[in-house]
């Protein structure tokens, strides 16, 4: 059902189950504010998730690939990241649809979180590019089961009037998780096998904490759909005008973001002139906290102001344009100072973008009953570009012999992402 205004709820309770009259649009949303403990639990859960993504994919995996085949590290890393992102793309909406069908989120959060431990153990044992690819595909699969379910908690349990605050709590997981992931990744750079287990245990612990301490109202179970029906249902979400443009905007920005961030360690090795004596791993541990502080500030302020002024599109578009400005800085200069400036400005941009865009997305979900599934479809805009980004980045770097053109292309994509939110009609 199309949510025609920011005040439309996304309650997962069907009209039949609630006793309300059947309607095709805007079912009643949650009537009360989320419990005090929910937002901190969401913060912890998302922090653990992003810590694994940053620490593993951004540092440990890159070091492992370089250790196995240093001569072809860029191409191999791009291949592994791209293939594994396919698994993320598939498992996210599928897991969301399964949690919709079961009427539960917590079991999927718990199952995905606990499965991260054996997945990370297998990744640590891999000693060839093929085995690394298979193991990280498995890791992406279980993490996206976890992510699909935890992403759906906000539209399930939080009223529209508090979406900005809830999205800020979720968004804070990115800077906190990025900092934790960078510091832990750098700490275990000489022992990535142990590092993998630490990250897996972190996600498992967060899953146990969130599911043990948060009450979940069981939703009506959904009848299973045949595969053809599921594919048609996924495609139907993109036929909704506002949801489609939100999807496009997110996909463009994420494509540019991951084209650069996925190669951050290699950029610091081969593009940036670091201060004498500073190793690239140590540079990551400096940049991530700087980015995170900026993200925290812009996430909190952006979430609050978007609620206060009821203007989501303005903040989303402005932050995407600011991201483009940030990407131009290291394109013009290879200095360490330029990378510090990039980290700070990009943190301000991306923190505000993720906080407010998440709130915007929850307001344009096509069908409230399919919140997890449709959020999973939207998350294809997160995972899908990660399939393309590594290949695009590796081709650009290989053809140009450096990373300057990569920053320029990413900046253009960020501008396109800013323009994509303009056609959205149901949200200001």
Helices and strands: which structural class?
mainly alpha
Annotation field: number of helices? 16
Integer tally of domains: 1
Q: Which CATH C-level class is it?
A: Mainly Alpha
Question: Gap between N and C termini, in Å?
Answer: 19 Å
By CATH, the architecture is named Up-down Bundle
Average of the residue pLDDT scores: 80
Write down the overall geometry: globular
Tell me the series of helices and strands, N- to C-terminal.
HHHHHHHHHHHHHHHH
Give the biggest sheet: none
Rg, alpha carbons: 20 Å
What is the number of E strands?
0
Relevant CATH superfamily: MFS general substrate transporter like domains
What this model shows, in words?
It is a single chain. By secondary structure, the protein is mostly helical. It has one domain (35-216, 237-420): MFS general substrate transporter like domains (Growth Hormone, Chain: A), CATH 1.20.1250. It has 16 helices and no strands. Helix 2 (38-68) packs antiparallel against helix 8 (192-213). It is globular, with a radius of gyration of 20 Å.
Brief characterization of the structure:
The chain is mostly helical and 428 residues long.
Observed structural traits:
16 helices; Growth Hormone, Chain: A; 428 residues; single chain; mainly alpha
Give the SSE layout.
Layout (H helix, E strand, L loop, with lengths): L14 H4 L19 H31 L4 H30 L3 H20 L3 H23 L1 H5 L5 H25 L4 H22 L13 H11 L3 H21 L2 H7 L9 H30 L2 H21 L3 H27 L8 H30 L3 H17 L8
Helix pairs in contact: 2-3, 2-5, 2-7, 2-8, 3-5, 3-15, 4-5, 4-8, 7-12, 7-14, 10-15, 10-16, 11-12, 12-14, 13-14, 13-16
